[in-house]
Design a protein that fits this description.
Blueprint: E1 9-14, H1 21-32, E2 37-42, H2 44-48, H3 56-67, H4 75-78, E3 89-95, H5 97-104, H6 111-120, E4 126-132, H7 140-147, E5 152-154, E6 157-159, E7 169-171, H8 176-184
Parallel strand pairs: 1-2, 1-3, 3-4, 4-5
Antiparallel strand pairs: 4-7, 6-7
């Protein structure tokens, strides 16, 4: 049965893991079919950096086409998200290691981080869709902090290339709608750690 979020305001906040954008925008398009009222927020880098994975202007345009709203791209425009109770749930997808570490340490120096800080003041759920090459390195402690933080939930994630990038982990973005459904009920979708590879017996 398709997910029905017709009475929900859902924010999708994008940071600079550009290699994931194809899947992220596919997930965003899927959310349009849930009848949710969608908003997007772009970090400074996401809103201005062109890469081999696409141009920032094209991504901003596509986000507007999918949601019917111009993306939020400045800290002043992100700050009212909390005071105006704009969102029922906010998703950071993709969430880079840089954003993850700042979030865990209370830093809000980008539109995405300001959106998260402002949203969390209302005790409403924040979902993290992880994408970082150092999840099992320097950022492991930050993942632990956020897993143990009230109102923060994770899209289940696993190692994406354990041979060439053993510290890298990425969210299973296809589980985003189900993760949102659980988070809205105050629950973490389990299991959190899911390997994309067969487990040897």
């Amino acid at each position: 049965m398709p997910h029905d979020f017709s009475d929900k305001n859902i924010g999708i906040a994008l940071t600079g893991s550009y290699c994931t954008y194809e899947k992220i925008f596919a997930a965003l398009e899927e959310l349009t079919h849930t009848k949710a009222n969608l908003f997007t927020v772009f970090s400074d880098r996401a809103a201005s950096t062109d890469s081999r994975f696409g141009n920032s202007a094209d991504f901003l345009k596509k986000a507007e086409e999918l949601t019917g709203k111009k993306p939020i791209v400045t800290i002043p425009d992100a700050e009212p998200i909390g005071p105006k109770s704009m969102l029922d749930i906010l998703v950071i997808a993709p969430c880079t290691g840089n954003t993850l570490s700042k979030l865990a340490n209370g830093i809000s120096d980008t539109p995405v981080l300001m959106a998260a800080k402002s949203h969390l003041r209302n005790n409403r759920p924040l979902v993290i869709s992880l994408s970082t090459n150092d999840a099992l390195g320097m950022n492991l402690k930050n993942i632990g902090i956020l897993l143990n933080t009230k109102n923060i939930y994770f899209v289940p994630f696993g190692q994406d290339n354990y041979e060439k990038k053993p510290n890298s982990m990425i969210a299973h973005i296809q589980l985003l709608p189900e993760t949102i459904e659980y988070a809205l009920k105050g629950r973490q979708l389990q299991p959190v750690i899911r390997s994309p590879y067969p487990i040897s017996e």
